[in-house]
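Q: I have 310 residues here and want to know how they pack in 3D. Can you give me a structure?
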Amino acid sequence: MQLRHLKSFIRIARDGSFSRAALALHIAQPALSQHIRQLEEELGVTLFVRHARGVTLSPAGNMLFPEAIKIIEQVASIQEQIIAFSKSQKRVEIRLGLPTSVVRTFGRAIAEAVENDQPEVMLQIVEGMTGFLCDWLTKDGLDIAILYDAVFYKKLPLGLVFKPLIKEEFFLISSAGLKISNDAILLKNIQAVPLVLPRKMHAIRTLIDDFAKSNNIKLNVVTEVDSFHMLIEIVRSGGFTFMPAIGVAQELAEGVVEIQRVTPSLYRTLNIVYFEKSNSIDAIHKLVETVYWVATNLLSNARFGTQILK
């Protein structure tokens, strides 16, 4: 029993005519008639009753019709599954490491852009602190990472490519209604402000401490946290922190936090860091361009003190 014979049978049954079915299937009517004759001989039954206006199904034909449809649909489903499997086997797997603040700010946009523009890529997004991301890069646990400037870089192996992505300005951030002033505040004047900051193991904390030390400032850190989400919740509940404003873009839009520029200003650079791996270099280069495109469209914002670097 051949699939083309079953397809011809189904078409004739639906059209009620050999001639109309032949036109729809783009084959000659004698060839179509031969398909049905061979199928009837194989099954030992008559499948159609012929009359002046065309054909109708015989009792045996009525029995075969739903089963033939099931067979054709099952074969089509198997073909689709095999094709999808074949495509998935050819996809390039790329492991992208992102800090929590980046995941929160534009991780979803990166994932959606890669899904739309790089269907050949199986993207794995790995979230972690900068220190952990650096360690995973060193141990070949990641192909690409987005990392902030930090002392952790000295632990990274040779052969990595660094591309600056974003320059971010730090702001004093508070819950709504606790803004100290409508103007920029002097760095020395925030010494008395009770701050919640990441613990010293974090790259951002190293940067803040070095900045304060270089300006002879002693910050009043009252709470240290590992979780970025916990930090934001404390600020929303009446606390203060010192960090880039882009990290609280959602809360700013909701009106639950406020930002205030600090002078002199502290900046940090977000970098794309990756290995030039020959087996996936084209996909990696395209992913780097995708990240730049997403950042340009979402993060270039004078209010947040962010600037795309390229």
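Q: Anything worth noting?
A: Residues 116 and 269 are 28 Å apart (CA to CA). The chain has two domains: 3-87, 92-308.
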